[in-house]
Design a protein that fits this description.
Elements (H helix, E strand, L loop, with lengths): L5 E6 L6 H13 L6 E6 L2 H10 L5 E4 L16 H6 L4 E4 L2 H7 L3 H13 L3 E6 L3 H5 L3 H13 L8 E5 L13 H18 L2 H6 L2 E4 L7 H5 L6 E4 L6 H8 L4
Parallel strand pairs: 1-2, 1-8, 2-3, 3-4, 4-5, 5-6, 6-7, 7-8
Bound molecules: phosphoenolpyruvate.
Keywords: Isomerase
Protein name: Triosephosphate isomerase, chloroplastic
Pathway: Carbohydrate biosynthesis
Protein backbone atom coordinates (compact mmCIF):
# COMPACT_ATOMS: atom_id res chain seq x y z
CA UNK A 1 0.00 0.00 0.00
CA UNK A 2 1.03 3.57 -0.42
CA UNK A 3 2.15 5.81 2.39
CA UNK A 4 1.03 9.16 0.94
CA UNK A 5 -1.74 11.51 2.04
CA UNK A 6 -5.19 10.94 0.50
CA UNK A 7 -5.57 13.10 -2.63
CA UNK A 8 -8.77 14.22 -4.33
CA UNK A 9 -8.73 16.22 -7.55
CA UNK A 10 -11.67 17.73 -9.41
CA UNK A 11 -11.30 17.98 -13.17
CA UNK A 12 -13.83 20.53 -14.39
CA UNK A 13 -12.86 19.91 -18.05
CA UNK A 14 -14.36 22.36 -20.57
CA UNK A 15 -17.32 23.26 -18.36
CA UNK A 16 -18.60 26.35 -16.63
CA UNK A 17 -19.32 30.05 -16.98
CA UNK A 18 -18.29 32.95 -14.74
CA UNK A 19 -21.60 32.55 -12.90
CA UNK A 20 -21.65 28.77 -12.50
CA UNK A 21 -18.02 28.81 -11.38
CA UNK A 22 -18.65 31.50 -8.82
CA UNK A 23 -21.47 29.34 -7.38
CA UNK A 24 -19.24 26.25 -7.35
CA UNK A 25 -16.46 28.18 -5.59
CA UNK A 26 -18.95 29.46 -2.98
CA UNK A 27 -20.09 25.87 -2.33
CA UNK A 28 -16.50 24.67 -1.99
CA UNK A 29 -15.61 27.57 0.30
CA UNK A 30 -18.43 26.66 2.67
CA UNK A 31 -17.86 22.89 2.58
CA UNK A 32 -16.29 21.04 5.51
CA UNK A 33 -13.21 19.26 4.18
CA UNK A 34 -11.16 16.82 6.26
CA UNK A 35 -7.74 18.24 7.08
CA UNK A 36 -5.75 15.22 6.16
CA UNK A 37 -6.55 15.26 2.42
CA UNK A 38 -4.87 17.11 -0.42
CA UNK A 39 -7.63 18.80 -2.43
CA UNK A 40 -7.06 20.21 -5.91
CA UNK A 41 -9.43 21.56 -8.56
CA UNK A 42 -8.70 22.03 -12.26
CA UNK A 43 -10.80 24.80 -13.86
CA UNK A 44 -10.58 25.67 -17.55
CA UNK A 45 -7.58 27.97 -18.17
CA UNK A 46 -9.64 31.13 -18.63
CA UNK A 47 -11.28 30.78 -15.21
CA UNK A 48 -8.14 29.92 -13.24
CA UNK A 49 -7.56 33.53 -12.22
CA UNK A 50 -11.19 33.96 -11.10
CA UNK A 51 -10.97 30.75 -9.05
CA UNK A 52 -7.58 31.65 -7.61
CA UNK A 53 -8.91 34.99 -6.38
CA UNK A 54 -12.07 33.59 -4.82
CA UNK A 55 -11.38 30.02 -3.63
CA UNK A 56 -10.07 29.22 -0.14
CA UNK A 57 -6.28 28.65 -0.13
CA UNK A 58 -6.80 25.21 1.37
CA UNK A 59 -7.79 23.98 -2.10
CA UNK A 60 -4.98 24.10 -4.65
CA UNK A 61 -5.42 24.82 -8.32
CA UNK A 62 -4.43 22.68 -11.27
CA UNK A 63 -4.38 23.38 -14.98
CA UNK A 64 -5.71 20.77 -17.39
CA UNK A 65 -2.74 21.00 -19.75
CA UNK A 66 0.54 22.86 -20.29
CA UNK A 67 2.91 23.40 -23.21
CA UNK A 68 5.87 21.06 -23.74
CA UNK A 69 8.53 23.74 -23.26
CA UNK A 70 9.18 27.38 -22.63
CA UNK A 71 6.53 29.77 -23.96
CA UNK A 72 6.92 31.71 -27.19
CA UNK A 73 5.51 31.36 -30.69
CA UNK A 74 3.03 28.56 -29.91
CA UNK A 75 -0.42 29.87 -30.78
CA UNK A 76 -3.15 28.75 -28.42
CA UNK A 77 -0.81 27.18 -25.87
CA UNK A 78 -0.26 28.06 -22.19
CA UNK A 79 3.18 27.59 -20.65
CA UNK A 80 4.13 26.09 -17.31
CA UNK A 81 5.79 29.42 -16.42
CA UNK A 82 2.50 31.25 -16.98
CA UNK A 83 0.64 28.76 -14.82
CA UNK A 84 3.12 29.23 -11.99
CA UNK A 85 2.83 33.00 -12.47
CA UNK A 86 -0.93 32.88 -11.99
CA UNK A 87 -0.76 30.73 -8.85
CA UNK A 88 -1.33 27.25 -10.24
CA UNK A 89 0.41 24.43 -8.36
CA UNK A 90 -0.57 21.42 -10.48
CA UNK A 91 -1.19 20.32 -14.04
CA UNK A 92 -2.94 17.24 -15.48
CA UNK A 93 -1.11 15.33 -18.21
CA UNK A 94 -2.10 12.20 -20.10
CA UNK A 95 -5.84 12.54 -19.60
CA UNK A 96 -7.65 10.08 -21.87
CA UNK A 97 -9.51 12.89 -23.61
CA UNK A 98 -6.18 14.38 -24.67
CA UNK A 99 -4.75 10.98 -25.62
CA UNK A 100 -7.74 9.75 -27.61
CA UNK A 101 -9.54 12.87 -28.86
CA UNK A 102 -6.58 15.21 -29.36
CA UNK A 103 -4.10 12.44 -30.22
CA UNK A 104 -1.28 13.05 -27.74
CA UNK A 105 1.14 10.12 -27.51
CA UNK A 106 3.08 8.65 -24.59
CA UNK A 107 6.38 10.40 -25.27
CA UNK A 108 4.81 13.81 -25.97
CA UNK A 109 2.87 13.51 -22.71
CA UNK A 110 5.98 12.40 -20.81
CA UNK A 111 7.92 15.39 -22.15
CA UNK A 112 5.15 17.80 -21.18
CA UNK A 113 5.10 16.33 -17.68
CA UNK A 114 8.89 16.62 -17.40
CA UNK A 115 8.86 20.25 -18.48
CA UNK A 116 6.05 21.12 -16.06
CA UNK A 117 8.00 19.47 -13.21
CA UNK A 118 11.13 21.40 -14.19
CA UNK A 119 9.14 24.63 -13.65
CA UNK A 120 7.89 23.42 -10.24
CA UNK A 121 4.39 22.45 -11.24
CA UNK A 122 3.24 19.16 -9.71
CA UNK A 123 1.78 16.65 -12.15
CA UNK A 124 -1.32 14.48 -12.11
CA UNK A 125 -0.20 11.79 -14.56
CA UNK A 126 -3.13 9.88 -16.05
CA UNK A 127 -3.11 6.39 -17.51
CA UNK A 128 -5.81 3.91 -18.40
CA UNK A 129 -7.01 1.33 -20.91
CA UNK A 130 -9.91 1.46 -23.36
CA UNK A 131 -12.71 -1.10 -23.20
CA UNK A 132 -11.44 -3.16 -26.15
CA UNK A 133 -7.99 -3.24 -24.58
CA UNK A 134 -9.44 -4.52 -21.29
CA UNK A 135 -11.50 -7.13 -23.13
CA UNK A 136 -8.40 -8.26 -25.02
CA UNK A 137 -6.56 -8.78 -21.70
CA UNK A 138 -4.20 -5.87 -22.39
CA UNK A 139 -5.00 -3.64 -19.40
CA UNK A 140 -1.62 -4.00 -17.72
CA UNK A 141 0.35 -3.73 -20.99
CA UNK A 142 -1.41 -0.49 -21.91
CA UNK A 143 -1.02 1.04 -18.45
CA UNK A 144 2.65 0.04 -18.22
CA UNK A 145 3.37 1.48 -21.69
CA UNK A 146 1.78 4.78 -20.66
CA UNK A 147 3.70 4.74 -17.37
CA UNK A 148 6.90 4.19 -19.31
CA UNK A 149 6.14 7.38 -21.29
CA UNK A 150 6.35 9.27 -18.01
CA UNK A 151 9.27 7.26 -16.59
CA UNK A 152 11.37 7.76 -19.75
CA UNK A 153 11.14 11.52 -19.36
CA UNK A 154 10.90 12.54 -15.71
CA UNK A 155 13.87 12.53 -13.38
CA UNK A 156 11.94 12.50 -10.10
CA UNK A 157 8.54 11.18 -9.03
CA UNK A 158 8.32 13.29 -5.86
CA UNK A 159 5.82 15.73 -7.37
CA UNK A 160 3.77 13.24 -9.36
CA UNK A 161 0.42 11.68 -8.50
CA UNK A 162 -0.64 8.83 -10.80
CA UNK A 163 -4.30 8.69 -11.79
CA UNK A 164 -5.56 5.33 -13.05
CA UNK A 165 -8.58 6.15 -15.16
CA UNK A 166 -10.00 3.34 -17.28
CA UNK A 167 -11.38 5.04 -20.39
CA UNK A 168 -14.56 2.93 -20.30
CA UNK A 169 -15.35 4.37 -16.87
CA UNK A 170 -14.80 8.05 -17.64
CA UNK A 171 -18.03 9.98 -17.91
CA UNK A 172 -20.01 6.79 -18.53
CA UNK A 173 -21.51 6.13 -15.10
CA UNK A 174 -19.78 2.71 -15.24
CA UNK A 175 -17.41 2.88 -12.30
CA UNK A 176 -14.72 0.21 -11.94
CA UNK A 177 -15.44 -2.12 -9.05
CA UNK A 178 -13.17 -1.63 -6.03
CA UNK A 179 -11.57 -4.98 -6.92
CA UNK A 180 -10.94 -3.99 -10.57
CA UNK A 181 -9.35 -0.72 -9.50
CA UNK A 182 -7.32 -2.29 -6.71
CA UNK A 183 -5.94 -4.92 -9.10
CA UNK A 184 -4.56 -2.27 -11.46
CA UNK A 185 -3.32 0.02 -8.67
CA UNK A 186 -1.36 -2.86 -7.13
CA UNK A 187 0.10 -3.69 -10.56
CA UNK A 188 1.10 -0.06 -11.10
CA UNK A 189 2.80 0.01 -7.71
CA UNK A 190 4.62 -3.19 -8.56
CA UNK A 191 5.70 -1.72 -11.93
CA UNK A 192 7.12 1.33 -10.12
CA UNK A 193 8.99 -0.94 -7.73
CA UNK A 194 10.58 -2.92 -10.56
CA UNK A 195 11.18 -0.04 -12.96
CA UNK A 196 11.81 2.98 -10.75
CA UNK A 197 12.43 2.15 -7.08
CA UNK A 198 10.84 0.62 -4.00
CA UNK A 199 10.76 4.06 -2.40
CA UNK A 200 8.89 5.65 -5.32
CA UNK A 201 6.50 2.67 -5.36
CA UNK A 202 5.53 3.15 -1.74
CA UNK A 203 5.48 6.96 -1.72
CA UNK A 204 3.70 7.74 -5.00
CA UNK A 205 -0.02 8.22 -4.65
CA UNK A 206 -2.13 6.23 -7.09
CA UNK A 207 -5.62 7.67 -7.38
CA UNK A 208 -8.62 6.28 -9.24
CA UNK A 209 -10.81 8.15 -11.73
CA UNK A 210 -13.86 7.15 -13.73
CA UNK A 211 -17.47 7.84 -12.66
CA UNK A 212 -16.58 8.36 -9.00
CA UNK A 213 -19.50 9.89 -7.12
CA UNK A 214 -20.76 10.52 -3.61
CA UNK A 215 -22.24 7.03 -3.37
CA UNK A 216 -19.46 4.81 -4.69
CA UNK A 217 -16.40 6.60 -3.29
CA UNK A 218 -16.37 5.11 0.22
CA UNK A 219 -16.05 1.49 -0.96
CA UNK A 220 -13.28 2.40 -3.41
CA UNK A 221 -11.44 4.40 -0.75
CA UNK A 222 -11.23 1.31 1.49
CA UNK A 223 -8.93 -0.49 -0.94
CA UNK A 224 -5.35 -0.49 0.18
CA UNK A 225 -3.76 0.84 -3.01
CA UNK A 226 -6.39 3.51 -3.76
CA UNK A 227 -4.88 6.73 -2.43
CA UNK A 228 -7.58 9.11 -3.61
CA UNK A 229 -9.61 10.11 -6.66
CA UNK A 230 -9.66 12.19 -9.80
CA UNK A 231 -13.26 13.26 -10.28
CA UNK A 232 -14.88 14.70 -13.40
CA UNK A 233 -18.67 15.12 -13.44
CA UNK A 234 -19.21 14.95 -9.68
CA UNK A 235 -16.57 17.64 -9.09
CA UNK A 236 -18.95 20.20 -10.62
CA UNK A 237 -21.23 19.78 -7.60
CA UNK A 238 -19.61 21.27 -4.49
CA UNK A 239 -21.44 19.29 -1.79
CA UNK A 240 -20.93 15.95 -3.61
CA UNK A 241 -17.26 16.71 -4.23
CA UNK A 242 -16.89 17.37 -0.47
CA UNK A 243 -18.37 13.92 0.25
CA UNK A 244 -15.70 12.40 -2.03
CA UNK A 245 -12.93 14.43 -0.37
CA UNK A 246 -14.07 13.12 3.00
CA UNK A 247 -14.57 9.51 1.88
CA UNK A 248 -11.41 8.08 3.41
CA UNK A 249 -12.42 8.93 6.98
C1 LIG B 1 -12.02 12.42 -15.52
O1 LIG B 1 -12.27 12.88 -16.61
O2 LIG B 1 -10.90 12.57 -15.02
C2 LIG B 1 -13.09 11.68 -14.85
C3 LIG B 1 -12.76 10.82 -13.93
O3 LIG B 1 -14.40 11.93 -15.24
P1 LIG B 1 -15.77 11.35 -14.58
O4 LIG B 1 -15.58 11.41 -13.07
O5 LIG B 1 -16.83 12.26 -15.06
O6 LIG B 1 -15.90 9.94 -15.05
Amino acid sequence: AGTGKFFVGGNWKCNGTKDSISKLVADLNSATLENDVDVVVAPPFIYIDQVKRSLVDRIEISAQNSWIGKGGAFTGEISAEQLIDIGCKWVIHGHSERRHIIGEDDQFIGKKAAYALSQNLKVIACIGEKLDEREAGKTFDVCFQQLKGFADNVSSWTNIVIAYEPVWAIGTGKVATPEQAQEVHAAVRDWLKKNVSAEVASETRIIYGGSVNGSNCADLAKKEDIDGFLVGGASLKGPEFAVIVNSAT
